[in-house]
């Protein structure tokens, strides 16, 4: 049996009344949570859900998603978390592509399930009656199974990539992947029963499910499920629930820094994690000094079960890097031909370890291109220093080639973040008839601050080589982001700008 599938029941046996999962006003102890998982697993069995089937869940952040995950694993099934803000067409694609047998959700999910001819479980009933027998249940009702049936090589999660390029792909993670990943995070962060995770990232993403839920539960700690992130309520949640850590994306840190105007009690927090996109070193330093919380930036992909490098909590943290390889993983930088590069040289980042995905659902060719000889080819450009710290330079596909010169947008973005008025910055390449491509920058300013396009161009020109200076800067109210809070450059490339010229 997968140790993760049996986790709720091991916790309930060891400490029945210990805190497990909190969600708003609801608090589930270990015994209550295990009971809810077992009950939902029985319902899945009654609906014909079998080992190897896929269970979809389409809900905003709530405890029911976590219960559905463990109930699916109880049956030897995998969970497919579907982003609830997707359009019907987008959600339908993921339900059909994964061939989900059942969907747990609200009335909207019920309509999609009926349309696709699959079973539906009303999310409102998942925890109903938990801790007490339902009216029609017999006290000695037989279990559908002797216990959780999932084993190491059973699929556990199908996580759909954000789809910034083409149709989203289903990343297949098995129990062995999640076992390795959660063990790695528990070791790196020294998680223990004393830890409480405050979940603010969405639960349809690997980061939320694995780093913020599975890992602390495995360590004996508990989880507070927050609703959608809001700077107006975030610090109240910290003061009320006293978490020891949270994981967030750079946008959240930037917004908290910009919109927090009074002092809060952050003493419960041991550390905070930043991932999903590069965080400006200057913002990390400012946030740490202002709020008294170590911010450890990390790096990873859903294809690598979420994290592969993270800065240490207690050791040397190097802002501007994404840290060192996590326990059990190997991270290297290679040439276009796949040859390993020495420290200090830039190339494609590759990852090897038990955390690397089984593949993309139904896409053997793409799997073969992405995972070669056990190495996950990330598509990211990086440099590893003499101490083993990785710095992400950019995405290979985002690199701008201007008149034969390679430009990495991240370098320009970091320069823009150094301007006191800049809250967010993104740089993309624009076609140019003479130079091939030129860099164009998009910026959103901090509340109450302004900066003109000319001022920002001059700011770049003061510290960047002339060929790297953006030919144009557009100041927008806010930059487009996906549901995880990651800047979406594809939407910026689609904006209809006048011809840029080539200066």
From TrEMBL:
MF terms (GO), sorted A to Z: medium-chain fatty acid-CoA ligase activity
GO BP terms: fatty acid metabolic process
Organism of provenance: Nocardioides simplex
Sorted UniProt keywords: Ligase
PROSITE patterns to which the protein is assigned, alphabetical: AMP_BINDING
Domain of life, source organism: Bacteria
Name of this chain's protein: Fatty-acid-CoA ligase FadD7
The keyword Ligase belongs to this UniProt entry's keyword annotation: yes
Family, similarity comment: Belongs to the ATP-dependent AMP-binding enzyme family.
Coiled coil: none
């Amino acid at each position: 049996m997968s140790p993760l599938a049996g986790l709720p029941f091991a916790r309930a046996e060891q400490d029945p009344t210990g805190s497990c999962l909190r969600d708003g006003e609801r608090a589930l102890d270990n015994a209550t949570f295990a009971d809810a998982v077992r009950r939902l697993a029985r319902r899945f069995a009654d609906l014909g859900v079998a080992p190897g089937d896929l269970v979809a869940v389409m809900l905003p952040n709530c405890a029911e998603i976590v219960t559905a995950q463990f109930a699916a694993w109880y049956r030897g099934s995998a969970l497919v978390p579907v982003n609830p803000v997707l359009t019907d067409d987008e959600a339908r694609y993921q339900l059909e592509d994964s061939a989900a047998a059942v969907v747990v959700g609200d009335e909207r999910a019920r309509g999609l399930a009926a349309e696709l001819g699959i079973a539906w479980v009303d999310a409102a009933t998942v925890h109903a009656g938990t801790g007490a027998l339902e009216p029609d249940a017999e006290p000695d009702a037989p279990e559908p199974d002797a216990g959780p049936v999932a084993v190491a090589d059973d699929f556990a999660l199908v996580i759909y990539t954000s789809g910034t390029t083409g149709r989203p792909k289903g990343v297949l993670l098995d129990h062995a992947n999640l076992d390795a990943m959660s063990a790695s995070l528990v070791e790196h962060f020294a998680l223990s029963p004393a830890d409480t995770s405050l979940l603010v990232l969405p639960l349809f993403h690997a980061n939320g499910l694995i780093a913020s839920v599975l890992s602390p539960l495995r360590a004996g700690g508990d989880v507070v499920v927050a609703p959608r992130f809001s700077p107006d309520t975030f610090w109240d949640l910290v003061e009320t629930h006293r978490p020891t850590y949270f994981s967030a994306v750079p946008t959240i840190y930037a917004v908290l820094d910009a919109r927090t105007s009074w002092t809060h009690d952050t003493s419960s927090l041991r550390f905070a994690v930043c991932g999903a996109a590069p965080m400006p070193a200057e913002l990390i330093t400012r946030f740490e000094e202002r709020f008294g919380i170590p911010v450890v930036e990390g790096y990873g992909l859903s294809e690598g079960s979420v994290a592969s490098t993270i800065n240490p909590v207690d050791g040397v943290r190097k802002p501007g890097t994404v840290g060192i390889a996590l326990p059990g993983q190997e991270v290297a930088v290679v040439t276009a031909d796949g040859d390993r590069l020495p420290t200090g040289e830039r190339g494609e980042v590759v990852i090897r370890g038990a955390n690397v995905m089984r593949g993309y659902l139904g896409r053997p060719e793409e799997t073969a291109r992405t995972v070669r000889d056990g190495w996950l080819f990330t598509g990211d450009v990086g440099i590893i220093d003499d101490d083993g710290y990785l710095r992400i330079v950019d995405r290979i596909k985002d690199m701008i080639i201007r008149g034969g010169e390679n430009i990495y947008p991240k370098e320009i973005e970091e320069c823009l973040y150094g301007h006191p008025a800049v809250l967010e910055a993104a740089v993309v390449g624009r076609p140019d008839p003479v130079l091939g491509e030129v860099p164009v920058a998009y910026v959103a300013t901090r509340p109450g601050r302004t900066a003109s396009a000319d001022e920002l161009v001059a700011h770049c020109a003061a510290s960047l080589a002339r060929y790297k200076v953006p030919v144009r800067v557009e100041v927008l109210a806010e930059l487009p982001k996906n549901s995880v809070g990651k800047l979406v450059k594809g939407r910026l490339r689609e904006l209809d700008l006048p011809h840029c010229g080539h200066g």
